[in-house]
From TrEMBL:
The lineage of its organism: Bacteria, Bacillati, Chloroflexota, Chloroflexia, Chloroflexales. Keywords: Signal. InterPro entries: PBP_domain, Phosphate_ABC_transporter. SUPFAM superfamilies: Periplasmic binding protein-like II (SSF53850). Residues 1-24 form the signal peptide. Residues 36-211 form the PBP domain. It comes from the Bacteria. This is PBP domain-containing protein. Gene3D superfamilies: Periplasmic binding protein-like II.
Amino acid sequence: MRSLAAVFALITALSLVACSTPSASPAPTAFVAPSTKITLAGSGGGLEILDALLIPFQRANPDVLLEFLVSSGGEPALRGAQAGEFDLAVLLTANHAGAGRPGLTLLSLAADPLVFIRHADLPLSDLSVAQIRAIYTGRITNWSAVGGPNLPIVVLTRNEDNAATHLLRTRIFGREAWQSAAIVLGRAADLREAVLRTPGSIGFGSYGDFMLNGLQAQVLTVDGIHPREPNYPIPPRWLVVAYPSAQRDALDPLLSYLQSDATRLLLTQNGMVPNE
């Protein structure tokens, strides 16, 4: 029988061998430097949607760098794509057929409802068209007048040359001036953040954008009709990309992804209606 000293010596020797044996290190992940850059510009809401939709594409194509430029609006984006300043113009437009330009090819992806959204603490889920008109034009200034709490209404809107503003003026507001204290915001992301941070606020924008940012519970129905129902009183805008026709082959991987079943599913899951 071995002595305790011999046993301890054996254990110590084995421990030293184990500690000195190098463990296998995982193979380092290969870095793939992007070899292609694709630039996108246009509608703020449209860019927000595409940025989210293209996450799977970017993971599957590490050699392609997607650069989302600062929101420029639809018309400037179309001119920039025509001039070769960037690769894709992104639009949210009520008239996608009218967005055509010489030298550009249009790809219409989905119908995107234009919706109203309120601050999370407001216990309201529906407003009528008449109530929305009265709120935005200053005839209703407190939420208590439409069944809400005794709280001043903070009206958030977009600048007059914005496509959403133009559509709502055509359908709801006409030429009436906004409420005198209305806050005018230049970008879709700014309005979305303002609704999140401002108690008593109401704003409008892209249903797809709001869904992708987890704000579906704050979207209002209008006249009791949900934005995805066919008789919703505000017509949708169309999510459209326009690209130089001569660049079709170079952009093919991205364009193919945008027309794939995977993208159609993402669009549907986030409140939009893909083109047939």
